[in-house]
Specification:
This protein has 65 residues and is mostly helical. It has helices at residues 14-22, 53-64.
Length: 65
């Protein structure tokens, strides 16, 4: 990631940088009075019978957020 290399900042969902934060490669900055609400839509083909592991991962990790 460019931010890890020291070039700027990024706005990223917590679930996408969870491990990097734990490894202390990135730091979290809290901005007062800033509230960001983002909708997430997961779309798959109708023919897919079972849930893809990545979709399961997103559902489980976004519940924590």
């Amino acid at each position: 990631m460019v931010v890890e290399a020291g070039y700027g900042i990024a706005l990223a969902p917590a679930c996408s940088v969870k491990e990097t934060l734990a490894q202390e490669k990135l730091a979290r900055v809290f901005v007062e009075q800033a509230e960001i609400n983002q909708s997430l839509f997961i779309c798959t083909r109708k023919v897919d019978e079972s849930e893809h592991p990545f979709i399961h991962y997103l559902k489980m990790n976004l519940i924590e957020s």
